[in-house]
Amino acid sequence: MLDVLIFATLNGLVTGLLLFMLASGLTLIFSMMGVLNFAHASFYMLGAYFAYSLSLYFGFWTGLIFAPLIVGVLGALVERYGLRRVHQAGHVAELVFTFGLAFLIEEAVQFFWGRDTKSYQSPDVLNFALFTLFGQEFSAYRGFMIAISVGIFIGLYYVLTRSRVGIIIQAAITHPNTVANLGHNVPLIFMGVFGVGTALAGVAGVIAGPVLTTFPGMATVLGSIVFVIVVIGGLGSLAGAFIASLLIGLLQSFAIASDVGMEDLLDLFGISFPYDHALADLWGLTLPQVAPILPFLLLVLVLIFRPTGLMGKREE
Amino acid sequence: MLEVRNLHAFYGKSHILHGVNFNVAEGEIVSLLGRNGVGRSTTVKTIMGEVAPQGSILFKGEEIAGRKSFEIAHRGLGYVPENRDIFPTLTVRQNLVLGMKSTKHQGRWTLDEVFAMFPNLGARADVPGGVLSGGEQQMLCMCRTLMGDPDMIMIDEPTEGLAPKVVEQVGDLLQEIAKRGVSILLVEQKLSIALRISHRLYVMGHGKIVYEGTPDSLRQADEVRAEWLEV
User: Is the pTM of this model over 0.90?
Assistant: First the structure.
């Protein structure tokens, strides 16, 4: 029991931190633009593919450094020459633009890399068990994922709350005109935030690629969960996104690790159904089977009972 | 320092400024007076690049009409907006740091000097700006602009909603700023502070300058005050 608890927690932490790497960038960009960037997870996918290609020639570590940089520059260019122009036409146009961009990136990925799954591997240096507990191994690569994510968040937190640049960003998000009047180039700041946000998504792609597999549908798979997270956390709230990311990560990993099902639940109430019942499949459902829909169930519950999300503020 | 010639501005199709002309010399305190809605705030917003200008705006001999706000600020023109846009969640110190255009260039004003001038701000340096009183927020807003080391500042209604004693403090601060060689364009509705500290005054009506003079001449111009200023 204890082994399940420990490993489910660790795996939940890996997933949660990875999700936060995407959710943090998405939240920052949302606060800035006022609309959700539907193409955000596509930058995550690009990170994985660029890193895969770079790793073929220069190894994993080169990919880890350069793929997020390339993704960040691409993101900044998208803001500068795409979103900034579309912004003048209003929020709906921006939303449609990012939606179209997501499709465009997915098609481009299929065009250049093909539809098959790429054998993007974690580096050999990290192919060992970090520790073995109750006969179960925890891979060094997963430990590395936790370390990278935590390191980035400490850095991000420090920059946003302690540095002058962070103060300017915080102020520019809420009061762009005032910040411009103080002599700061707000469009440049927004381009930078967009670039850094997409680069963070790129990092997530680089480190998740070898574990969650690198294939053209990876943006869609994770993208929907990331939107769930920013809504549950409260739109525009970084702290909310952090809590929601860990919550979803842990919820999913505990659901997968558990071996309870509908039958156990019905047993509690002393109800049982014959195995040849027409709805036998429903009574036979197990928690690991429904794990993928749990985040969406949580989203529905949050929207019913707390529409602003965990840490969101109600718009006046 | 600042020379505005034949300035026009529009909000959509509404013609707001109808050829405004005025100037501010170095180290001078000039007030722009007038009732609500005559275009005083629009004038400063247009100079600052927030509203698209038509006409000429020369700052330190250089044409700034059509430039972006941050570029104008970089040339040394500071602006303290009417709504005291302090950043409520940032501390007093962070609000001031935000006003600095660069950490390398040391301007006329330092954090220590500002805190010495306003012990209230110094004592609450690490408190969020949102909890300060209205008067303190106004001081913070002005000091934040000073941290960017401007050669001239434009202040929009700094005394609105403030107690008479605080209004007097604001006046003293403006005189202190001018003594350090910073020109001031004060946009006001209150005659008292404008008459007390200004070197020259302009009165606006219907989107243009309708009177130009000194505090003494305006005191004697009863008909101007009655027609354009008094409610």
Answer: no
